[in-house]
Amino acid sequence: MRIIHELEEMTKVARGLLVGGPVGFVPTMGNIHEGHLALIRAAHEECEMSVVSIFVNSLQFPSLEAAQQYPRNIQRDLQLLRTTDIDIVFLPSQSAVYPPPFSTYVTPTGRLAERIESERGKNFVRGLATGITKFLQIVRPDVAYFGQKDVQQVAIVRQLVRDLSIDVTLRILPIIREHDGLAISSVNMRLSSEQRAIAPTLYKALLIGKTLIEQGERQAEVIKQAMQATLTTQPQIVPEYISLCHPDMLLEMEEVTPGTLLRISSLIGDVRLADNILWTTNRQWRV
Ligand code: AMP
How far is the CA of 146 from the centre of ligand 1 (A)? Predict the structure, then answer.
């Protein structure tokens, strides 16, 4: 496992790799967990070389303070990564990625961007798009791996890669869950034990939606109300949104059809949890 800090070194290595087989890339913000490890395993199995990056992308947070509060544990991450077959860990500094006076941004516009901005705040879309573009430029992967967990990220990256003709294949892998259904996430560690006990309610609410659809219900409003009712059985859960939408554009649906994404975001205390399940166009469930 080679650790690279410098951008030039990463790009030089990436260029050298061009002659060989495919390079797989897993961008992360660290706090490596089973969800990340699933992406890393896939990259290793499917590609000649695998690269994971650990970088808290300050641009996509509402403020610098918020970015600084994001949990970091590099030594533990490296220990965990050494147990995998990852070839390269890319660990650049903030000032290397965004050298002052950094002033060139990738700014998605249109309905998808507006929709996600309304859910995540103004900086998120531009910060994410700029950060991902930059990393794809530096690492030059053939395949980039993302989790279905972050559907907003997936939607933005799909659009970005298409619009800017970036030569990369995207692989989107299913959500890895705890035994009780809670989607694994770096923020779960911030939940108290009481909050952790009720956190799987988000997944339960999604499964209520799934059951209704399986029973033939098609009216989005009816399904959302049932999901909302499940969430509100726990007064500590403050729903932010319940959405039944198209998986690429995240446009709300009135009538559910195969190819519908069911999404929930809620606050428990000050921890924001998001989860989703997908009813695919061929009527399979990605839960
Ligand atoms: P993050 O470090 O939170 O930015 O996540 C890095 C990548 O891991 C993103 O593509 C996430 O969607 C993915 N990821 C995070 N949690 C999970 C999970 N529970 N299952 C699958 N992928 C995940």
Answer: 7
